[in-house]
Write a structure and sequence with these properties.
The complex is a heterodimer. Chain A is mostly helical. Chain A has one domain. Chain A contains 17 helices and three strands. In chain A, helix 3 packs antiparallel against helix 14 and helix 8 crosses helix 9. The longest helix of chain A is centred in the N-terminal third of the chain and has 44 residues. Chain A is elongated. Chain B is an all-alpha fold. Chain B has a domain of 184 residues. Chain B has a three-stranded mixed β-sheet with strand order 2-1-3, sandwiched between helices. The longest helix of chain B has 49 residues. Chain B is elongated and about 105 Å long. The chains are: A mainly alpha, B mainly alpha. Chains A and B meet through helix 2, helix 3, helix 4, helix 9 and helix 10 of A and helix 2, helix 4, helix 5, helix 10 and helix 11 of B.
Chain lengths: 480, 447
């Protein structure tokens, strides 16, 4: 144990003496500050903006005078998506998410105004977030720091001396790895402290256990991720004849892991599983609705038979004599049918997406970058699942408001009303307050574990694999 | 001499792997492009088919009321996808290339998003522009980082300097050989692409080719300058990779963050709220002022008097129109904001070749924000045209079957904006001249 610590200390000492290391670290430090600053500015701007318009939307809703409930159902609501606190750390897919959905009766609107839709094409190069720096740039820094760790000892001939003095390969590899991890920690620890402070400021005294757990898991998973790269650097250095081969292999590896493989795996998924076009998706839903019952078609057979059965149950000869507003009832049925069909198709579409993404997810076993990318997004609430959750909750709210308005219509509107415009066909505006505003509630951390099981397993696999490789190589490596 | 250099260069295994890697990535990118174009074509075909059926069905269901029928009818406009789009997909995967609108309020429909797997968008496409911008430089770096340093490290450099008549022309030949090999890979890939993707050999394609060659030259210029510093192979590798990361990852991403924060788009949300209020509140106000405002906007429709009764279509469409009219200011501001973003990013990009290339390739392929904004303008025109066509028919209560509904086919918008060659090519030429010139001065001084 002692000699490992000794080697680690020596490694640290030489690394800190190196001017290039100092410059690179400083540069990454500055970049991290910029990332934190711009993430925070964006978080603040976006959330202030969303809150402002959400409030405005609510005010507009409440300012409606007495009117026909179905007019209110069409007046509709907006759901503006606010950013999760940890999105300051990892932007994830945020820029591709739509920011607002218009929620009205009969119709599931798209989530519009994503940042990507307004982008000039620059977004394709990525964004600078703290997570991105830790995921992409730090591994490269680790490779730059570690490529010569053992290879140069071999080139200088000091490796033979070290080993002949009784040091084992295992001690050497572990020692160098600890040293490298130590250097990385001089960046990692301050960054994580800064994040925690930023995170506490953002939460403004509402820190939940749940959010704390998320942060702690982020810290842990990034620690594991970076350590994996430290060990990889030392192992490649150990098997390379010269430091130049070690460097070029490590650079090649880095490019494959962070630039080429992620895109390639996703292209594969996309090529194998095709998604329907928007028009196909929508016309399929229309067709299914017509098959079951279209409340907007006056001759629809389903609603005709529904009407007949209603008339016989209530023993009346015209819908006008029913004890409730028939129009409201018809729309309530229609809404139920179309919402169910929509959800079924939406789920199917999301299933295709899951299949497309499965290659990138599984790739985590080959590529730790994918494991951290997916896990970090999930923990920061910036992954696709957080977005679908928002959309599902918005849809549930839309459905609730529409049906509530249909209920009002059934209860309060006379069956003799000819249109929604007459003064006799309106209800009191106090009802508008009965409906609370839309509020998005992120799901618990449990969902992260189930969604990202593959990423977590991949991390465990990598830890196991590296320990195995250290053991294996310790037995087989040669000093020359 | 040059043939010997070429033979020696091609003998190396790593060179063969590099060339194969580029070719393979290039060919994959062509497939990705083909898949994208095919999907676009399919969408357009499905839209055309759907529109026909949709109109026929609704005409059958609402055959008595023109106003009600037009409440439902959707008309689609397609943003034409050029074959060359396959080589630079750009923003076309994010933004819908088909927009379907009824003649009701436009602002509530104009920005409707496409269906997308966001993970695809996040990780990005492997289109040819990616291969060119990201991967070509890596191979160029791999081919040239040790061009002189290796000779020095193996001790052969002195022999070269003594034996060759002009060491500088020897260096020049070393670079030329590598340049020709990379250029050949580019030509082969684009030649296959031209046939496979049926890209016409027009000025757009030639510009694409030319700007690609300049980009490759730019990276050779960078490598040439670094080689002229006479450092070790390891140093060169690290410094060149750092330049690559700086130009491809750090700078573009930082500028993106900067632009997003500098030009946030609250106008988008403002527009959508305003149009909702502008339209809906008219249900609760007197009809006459709404209709008067409508007449003020369209004096030609004054001849249609508002019918009596609780509800009439003139009033209804006047209300819809008010949604657009009252949010027109915000909508215009949004457009101006996006225009500003677009302009600023193109201006900044002139100084960052990687960014410049991405933006200009998108311009050439009509797949950038410029095209998207033009398309949105065209959606507005298209919508207005339909309105003006149908308004008199609705207000005069023309019978539904007096219209030949067959003629309402899907329309196509073709972006005919011209390219500014100076703007596309000049920034790269300046950089090439600068780097090669500096490298040349350095070499003159040191050998």
């Amino acid at each position: 144990m002692n000699s490992e610590i000794l080697i680690a200390k020596l490694f640290l000492k030489t690394a800190f003496k190196n001017k290039a290391v100092f410059i690179l670290t400083l540069f990454i430090g500055l970049l991290l500050i910029y990332a934190a600053f711009s993430g925070w500015t964006n978080f603040k701007n976006q959330n202030e903006m969303k809150a402002k318009y959400q409030e405005q939307s609510r005010k507009d809703w409440l300012s409606n005078p007495d009117k026909h409930p179905h007019r209110m159902a069409h007046y509709g609501n907006f759901a503006f998506r606010s950013k999760a606190p940890l999105s300051v750390f990892d932007f994830g897919m945020e820029s591709f998410f739509g920011n607002s959905i218009y929620l009205e009766a009969h119709k599931q609107n798209t989530t519009n105004f994503s940042e990507a839709g307004f982008s000039t094409g620059m977004l394709r190069f990525g964004e600078i977030s703290i997570a991105m720096i830790l995921q992409v740039l730090l591994p490269l820094l680790i490779f730059f720091l570690g490529f010569s760790s053992i290879a140069s000892e071999r080139e200088n001939g000091t490796l033979k001396i070290l080993l002949s003095q009784g040091l084992s390969w295992k001690q050497l590899i572990l020692g160098k790895s600890y040293g490298l991890i130590g250097v990385v920690m001089t960046i990692f620890i301050p960054v994580m402290m800064a994040i925690s402070i930023l995170w506490i400021t953002i939460q403004s005294n509402n820190i939940t256990l749940e959010e704390t757990l998320r942060l702690l898991l982020i810290i842990l998973s990034y620690f594991v991720y970076l350590s994996i790269f430290c060990v990889i650097a030392v192992l490649i250095s150990a098997i390379s004849k010269t430091s130049k081969t070690a460097l070029t292999s490590l650079i090649g590896l880095w490019l494959m892991l962070t630039i080429v493989l992620p895109r390639a795996s996703q292209a594969l998924g996309k090529a194998i599983y095709s998604t329907p076009s928007k028009v196909k998706f929508e016309s399929d839903i229309d067709a299914d609705v017509v098959k079951v019952g279209d409340s907007h078609n006056p001759d629809d057979p389903y609603f005709k038979s529904l009407k007949d059965s209603l008339l016989s149950v209530y023993k009346v000869d015209s819908v006008k004599k029913l004890p409730f507003n028939y129009g409201g009832f018809q729309m309530k049925e229609g809404e139920k049918i179309s919402a169910n069909i929509y959800q079924k198709h939406q789920k199917e579409l999301w299933n295709i997406y899951d299949k497309q993404n499965s290659f990138s997810k599984i790739l985590a076993f080959v590529n730790p970058y994918m494991a951290i990318k997916n896990l970090s997004m999930a923990l920061s609430n910036t992954d696709f699942s957080s977005y679908t959750e928002f959309q599902e909750q918005a849809e549930a709210y839309r459905y609730h408001v529409s049906q509530e308005m249909n209920e009002f219509q059934m209860k309060y509107i006379s069956n003799n009303a000819k249109s929604s415009a007459g003064k006799s066909n309106i209800i009191d505006k106090k009802h508008w307050e009965d409906l609370h505003d839309f509020q998005y509630k992120p799901s618990g951390i449990g969902k992260v574990f189930s969604n990202e099981l593959i990423s977590i397993l991949a991390f465990l696999f990598w830890i196991g694999l590296l320990f195995f490789l250290i053991r294996l190589l310790s037995k087989n490596l040669k000093a020359i | 001499m040059i043939t010997l250099i070429l033979k020696n260069f091609l003998r190396s295994n790593s060179v063969k792997i590099g060339v194969l890697f580029l070719l393979l990535a290039g060919i994959i990118s062509l497939f990705v492009g083909k898949q994208f174009i095919d999907k676009q074509k399919q969408s357009v075909a499905e839209t055309a088919q759907y529109q026909q059926k949709h109109i026929a069905d609704n005409v059958k269901n609402h055959k008595d009321e023109m106003g009600l029928l037009l409440y439902y009818l959707k008309f689609s406009l397609v943003n034409n996808t050029l074959p060359i789009n396959a080589l630079s997909i750009g923003q076309r995967d994010v933004n819908p290339s088909i927009q379907s609108v009824t003649i009701r309020g436009l602002e509530a429909q104009k920005y409707d998003a496409d269906l997308n797997n966001l993970y695809n968008l996040l990780l990005g496409n492997i289109d040819f522009s990616f291969v060119l911008i990201f991967l070509f430089p890596l191979i160029i770096i791999a081919f040239t980082y040790n061009i002189i340093s290796e000779e020095k490290e193996s001790g052969t450099w002195k022999i070269v300097v003594i034996q060759s008549r002009s060491p500088f022309s020897f260096i020049f030949q070393l670079f030329s050989v590598r340049f020709l090999v990379v250029l050949l890979v580019l030509f082969v890939t684009l030649f296959i692409g031209c046939i496979f993707l049926e890209i016409p050999l027009d000025s757009a394609f030639l510009t694409y080719l030319l700007v690609s060659i300049l980009y490759i030259l730019f990276w050779f210029g960078v490598c040439f300058l670094v080689a002229s510093l006479h450092k070790t192979s390891n140093f060169n590798a690290v410094i060149l990779l750092s330049i690559w990361i700086f130009l491809i990852i750090i700078l573009p991403a930082s500028i993106n963050n900067y632009l997003v924060n500098k030009y946030p788009t609250p106008e988008a949300l403002e527009t959508t709220l305003k149009q909702r209020k502008g339209y809906h509140e008219k249900w609760d106000t007197d009809k006459q002022p709404t209709v008067d405002k409508f007449y003020a906007h369209y004096p030609q429709f004054k001849k249609f008097k508002m019918p009596e009764g609780d509800f009439n279509w003139l009033w209804y469409y006047a209300m819809q129109q008010m949604g657009d009219d009252e949010s027109a200011k915000q909508s215009k501001e949004l457009r101006e904001k996006l225009q500003k973003r677009n302009k600023l990013s193109a201006n900044i990009a002139q100084f960052i070749p990687t960014l410049h290339l991405q933006i200009q390739l998108n311009e050439i392929a009509k797949s950038g924000l410029t095209n998207q904004l033009l398309f949105l303008d065209e959606v507005t025109h298209f919508h207005e045209k339909n309105r003006l066509y149908f308004y008199p028919k609705i207000f005069s209560e023309a019978p539904v079957n007096s219209e030949n509904w067959e003629k309402f086919k899907v329309q196509t918008f073709t972006d005919k904006s011209s390219l500014s060659y100076m703007k596309i090519l000049l920034p790269l030429m300046v950089f090439i001249g600068l780097f090669v010139g500096l490298g040349w001065v350095n070499f003159r001084r040191t050998i």
